[in-house]
Amino acid sequence: MIKLTKTILRLALSTGLITLLSFDISAQQATKLPSQILDLSNWKLNIPEGIKTPGGSDEYRQPELQTYSNEFWFYANNGGNAVVFRAITGGTTTKGSGYPRSELREMIDNGKKNASWSSSTGTHTLFIDQSIIHLPVKKPHIVVGQIHDADDDVIVFRLEKNKLFVKMDNDKGPLLDENYQLGTRFTVMFKVSNDQTECYYNGKLKFTYPKAFTGAYFKAGAYVQSSCQGKRKVEGEACDAFGAVEIYKVWAKHEL
């Protein structure tokens, strides 16, 4: 993979050189679209660039997402069996966040409306089969699966250097792997019912979090927890440092 600095990327995007850079990069990647690997019908995507949304995070919804691929942030891996989600620490962010992301947000009605559900009604499940393949350098932290409510994240799966764990609000939960090796494939699952959130790792129940919340939705992808700029700036972090995950399968299910 060609390593792009923030300066080169900006130059490419602003001068039309993006086609030249894209040719070199995509020659190393599979030709599949992400939608041919993952069912994206009830998701939208945020990426860490602001071409459509200057100063913000560009968003792709259905039906545009169905044919969308981006050689920097969202593309099929070389094997054509997973989608790479990649976010640089110098990327743009969504409103209210200081960290960049290449991440799916749960939707309903074939991607037309935002998902919004309650922990007290029905059963709600998110499953992700994935591997974390790269971390930022100075602050090697990344979130790779979330439940968000109407205000903030409720609970996430998070990797800090080599420690993979569950994090709730501002509290660390149980350790899932104390020595995670980049590239190792694993599965995680949230299952929410009766105000209880069960957290599974490689098919085994590891933790149950008791909390009621509303306006909820799932997220999956690469949400780096480092930045080279702005309110979350990490001193010494290069703006082309990045986090990346490969997702082999992701699905959300709701039983009311």
From TrEMBL:
<keyword id="KW-0456">Lyase</keyword>
<dbReference type="GO" id="GO:0016829">
    <property type="term" value="F:lyase activity"/>
</dbReference>
<dbReference type="GO" id="GO:0004553">
    <property type="term" value="F:hydrolase activity, hydrolyzing O-glycosyl compounds"/>
</dbReference>
<dbReference type="Pfam" id="PF08787">
    <property type="entry name" value="Alginate_lyase2"/>
</dbReference>
<dbReference type="InterPro" id="IPR013320">
    <property type="entry name" value="ConA-like_dom_sf"/>
</dbReference>
<protein>
    <submittedName>
        <fullName>Polysaccharide lyase family 7 protein</fullName>
    </submittedName>
</protein>
<dbReference type="GO" id="GO:0005975">
    <property type="term" value="P:carbohydrate metabolic process"/>
</dbReference>
<feature type="domain" description="Alginate lyase 2">
    <location>
        <begin position="38"/>
        <end position="250"/>
    </location>
</feature>
<feature type="signal peptide">
    <location>
        <begin position="1"/>
        <end position="27"/>
    </location>
</feature>
<dbReference type="InterPro" id="IPR014895">
    <property type="entry name" value="Alginate_lyase_2"/>
</dbReference>
<keyword id="KW-0732">Signal</keyword>
